[in-house]
Design goal:
The complex is a heterodimer. Chain A is 42% helix and 18% strand. Chain A contains four helices and four strands. In chain A, a hairpin with a 4-residue loop joins strand 3 and strand 4. Chain A starts with a helix and ends in a 12-residue tail after the last helix. Chain B is an alpha/beta fold. Chain B has a five-stranded mixed beta sheet, sandwiched between helices. The relative contact order of chain B is 0.08. Classes of the chains: A alpha+beta, B alpha/beta. The complex binds flavin mononucleotide and FE2/S2 (inorganic) cluster. FE2/S2 (inorganic) cluster (FES) binds next to helix 1 of chain B.
């Protein structure tokens, strides 16, 4: 260790490892992963989020939740901001997930189109 | 990239209920589900809720599981980690008093709601064997700040301003202690961390070293810089193997990262730390005895002055601080002395860690701001006495402290208040006693401990404590008289005034405080020859209620000394007091509750 810079670099890198144990994520993402969600393809959706968090080091945490009773619209993804406001995306696919990441998580713009029921 | 961390407590409490096997089982089960790239299992230090161990926490979900067994692991992995459905039956809960609904959020659980964690800030949150996790949570920032932006005097001034007082028992202001040592002109000085923790029932220091060893290492290095020392010792009892192991790993990692050793942060400052194992003698927690032990001599105290700050280990200026004292220091440097001084009471700043034990629902480790009342700690955090028994007293300060009663429960806890009440803060052991505890027996217990632990160097302590123990035994066995009580009190005061070190000087405290607050129990023992709590065997009488006795003979059958006689089905049974050894087997064996103990 030669300098404060060096310490801070280690800190930044390590923070990503422990951040999810603290309450300071910008967004919490909840993916419905009960039997219905998994059957509808929730795993690849979750994978997409995970990969993006890793690649772009997004300040968010990812949680799985159980069935919320709208099985027909699974995979369902809920995004909760620090104020506690919840946005619910329905019938999410891996491709839609990528769009949500770009728009909602990176720019703070909610993708209204995906929050409605289509089926 | 991981989305979920499974934190398994690897503190002493949970380790003894096999938490390390849980770690393995979790890793296997997670691999079976092919989730190993998403979910990491982490070993942490104590969560404080040792009573409910093994504890497993799942983040970011903030779900806390208690009493987790190997058999529960598959369910947690399949249901919670795979499908996102927490296993409710294992979650730690409280009942909301108003709505009568279960509370699952752990911050709202009463055990944690009143706590404030400074010394324990990282315990249960990071892996103590991974220095980068400590760094992530501001670890070694304080050291960097001190070495790069502060003079040694700045550091000492900051400590003074914070109002931090030693957590090892005495409550001496840390900044002043450092100032004395810094003022000594000597190119060889030492920093010692006192991790002897000899108070029976205490495990604060042990848990800090097991859960967050780097905080102590960082603080010792800061202390070294402040007083001009380049060498430190951690004096720790060999009975703390997990703490010793984690400390070794931490020292090694800190050296590898250049935060300990020759040229720390490239500033030219050098500091090394060595571990010295003690054999677990209470007296070796006393600073002069501790120094003797480090030097390889027999652990016996010596007269002060000279104080260690002037003439300590190897005859050089030395500061000795307690583990918990050190653990507070990086937080003070990082967040500021003013912040620290804003917590607590006027003369006792910050927080104090207590190890709750005895007759209390939540046995475990808690950290509360100074000024919290005993009632809040015992009832709100600790959950009160189990089995609806009545609270009788709380012993603080272990064998050097005293007992406090119901009437003291609303006293705000701080160094001076407890001393004013005839007890003391001590290092933080807090033993709760209920109606089933005999206070004479409690005094006897602590005196027994002291007699074992007295080093024998000075006469008042060596012989005085032995005589006091004999008197206490006489009282509990029915041989005591009013004269015994007078003699006991006189001797207690003599030993207090004339002993060489703190061990003897405080050894009388349990006797004096029980005599003061529970005189009636002593009187019952010496006048009525009765033990009101029914603990002292020699004073118990067993008898059988003729009307309740169904003449079944089970009592006689189970009596090891054939002290019970009667005729099966015909004649009620009776106890022969001369033969009876007061073992209580008959009470257990009687299906009709016919046997009375008085
Ligand atoms: C009999 C006896 C036992 C002690 N045991 C301990 C101990 O186990 N741990 C400790 O930190 N201090 C113990 N002390 C207090 C130390 O002598 C010393 O005051 C303390 O370590 C100073 O650190 P502090 O200022 O940070 O509290 C003991 C004192 C006496 C008289
Ligand atoms: S040892 Fe696990 S909670 Fe204390």
């Amino acid at each position: 260790m030669k300098s404060l810079d060096e310490l801070n670099k280690i800190r930044e890198a390590a923070l990503l490892k422990v951040n999810l144990r603290q309450n300071n994520a910008q967004y919490r993402i909840l993916v419905g992963m009960a039997t219905c969600g998994i059957a509808a393809g929730a795993r690849p959706v979750m994978k997409t989020f995970l990969d993006a968090i890793d690649k772009d080091q997004l300040p968010v945490t990812l949680q799985q939740t159980g069935c919320i009773g709208m099985c027909i619209h699974e995979p369902i993804v809920e995004i909760i901001d620090q104020a506690g406001t919840k946005t619910t995306y329905l019938e999410v696919t891996a491709a839609k997930a990528s769009e949500i990441i770009e728009s909602h998580l990176k720019q703070g713009k909610i993708l209204e189109a995906y929050t409605h029921v289509t089926k | 990239m991981e989305r979920t961390h499974v934190l398994v407590c690897a503190g002493t409490g949970c380790t003894s209920s096999k938490s390390l096997e849980l770690v393995k089982r979790f890793e296997e089960a997670i691999r079976m589900k092919d989730l190993q790239s998403e979910i990491k299992v982490v070993k942490t230090g104590c969560f404080g809720l040792c009573q409910k161990g093994p504890i497993v926490a799942i983040h970011p979900d903030k779900v806390f599981y208690s009493h987790v067994t190997l058999g529960d692991v598959d369910e947690i992995v399949n249901e919670h980690l795979y499908k996102g459905r927490p296993v409710k039956r294992l979650e730690i809960t409280d009942i909301d008093e108003e709505t009568k609904e279960a509370i699952f959020e752990f911050e709202k659980i009463k055990f944690y709601a009143k706590q404030k964690r400074i010394a324990l800030r990282n315990c249960g949150l990071i892996n103590p064997e991974d220095v980068t996790e400590y760094i992530a949570l501001d670890g070694y920032q304080a050291l960097a700040k001190v070495l790069m932006t502060m003079t040694p005097q700045n550091v000492i001034d900051e400590m003074k301003k914070s109002g931090l007082r030693g957590r090892g028992g005495g409550g001496f202001p840390t900044g002043n202690k450092w100032q004395f040592a810094a003022n000594q002109v000597n190119d060889e000085k030492y920093v010692i961390c006192n991790a002897d923790e000899g108070d029976p029932g205490a495990f604060m220091d042990r848990s800090i070293l097991e859960g967050d060893p780097h905080s102590v290492i960082e603080a010792m290095t800061i202390a070294g810089y402040a007083i001009g020392a380049h060498h430190g010792y951690v004096y720790i009892r060999a009975e703390y193997p997990i703490a010793v192991e984690r400390l070794k790993i931490a020292i090694q990692q800190s050296e590898e990262y250049g935060m300990l050793g020759d040229n720390i942060f490239n500033t030219g400052f050098k500091f090394n730390i060595e571990i010295r194992l003690g054999a677990g003698a209470f007296v070796c927690g006393e600073e002069t005895a501790l120094i003797a032990s480090i030097e390889g001599r027999r652990g016996m105290p010596s007269v002060k002055p000279p104080f260690p700050a002037v003439k300590g280990v190897w005859g050089k200026p030395t500061i000795i601080n307690n583990v918990e004292t050190f653990a507070n220091i990086p937080a003070i440097i990082n967040t500021g002395a003013d912040w620290f001084a804003s917590i607590g009471t006027e003369k006792s700043k910050g927080t104090k860690v207590f190890a709750l034990g005895g007759k209390i629902v939540n046995t475990g480790l808690v950290e509360v701001p100074m000024g919290t009342t005993l009632r809040e700690v015992i009832y709100e955090i600790g959950g009160g006495c189990p089995n609806h028994k009545n609270f009788k007293a709380v012993q603080t300060g272990g064998p050097s402290g005293g007992c406090l009663t119901e009437e003291h429960l609303d006293t705000p806890i701080d160094f001076d208040n407890l001393i004013a009440l005839g007890s003391m803060m001590g290092s933080g052991g807090m033993i709760i006693l209920d109606e089933d505890n005999c206070m004479v027996d409690v005094a006897r217990f602590y005196m027994d401990f002291i007699v074992d632990e007295s080093c024998g160097k000075c006469t008042p302590c060596r012989i005085g404590t032995k005589r006091m123990l004999e008197m206490l035994i006489d009282i509990t066995e029915g041989r005591g008289t009013l004269q015994t009580l007078t003699d006991l009190e006189t001797l207690a005061l003599h030993v207090k005034d004339s002993s060489l070190c703190g061990l003897g000087q405080t050894a009388s405290n349990p006797v004096l405080s029980t005599l003061k607050h529970f005189k009636h129990e002593y009187l019952a023992h010496v006048i009525d020859k009765k033990c009101p709590a029914k603990v002292c065997k020699a004073l118990l009488d067993y008898s059988i209620d003729k009307d309740l006795c169904k003449k079944c003979g089970l009592c006689a059958k189970g009596c090891p000394t054939t002290a019970i006689s009667g005729v099966l089905g015909k004649e009620a049974y009776v106890v022969d007091a001369a033969k009876c050894i007061r073992c209580g087997a008959c009470v257990q064996n009687c299906p009709f509750g016919a046997i009375e103990r008085a």
